[in-house]
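Support request, please re-run this one:
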Amino acid sequence: MDEKPQVALIAERIRKEPFNMLTNNCLRKSFKFRKECRKIGIEVGIVFALVLTRCDKFPLPRYVVWFHGWAVVDGRRIELARPLDEKNTANTFDIDIRPLVAIHLL
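Re-run finished. Output below.
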């Protein structure tokens, strides 16, 4: 059985879960994703990073520093915090976030 479609289905289901900074944030969703993928024999890495991103919520664009997490499958970044077409609290897309410092958890 091809495992990649299953990975995409798991990721999409987790993305659709409501985001909450305290109870269901990007890091928690990444660990949930890893747990479910391991059940079907797929290894998943998790990246926890200090990131710098542009924040368009102010009259003039500002850059803000915050923490963000995502999963990695076969070297490919999998964003899980929210649906891919939904902007985050800084009014940018999660996939555009680049890490300043990243910790790769196996």
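The helical segments are 4-15, 26-39. The radius of gyration is 14 Å.
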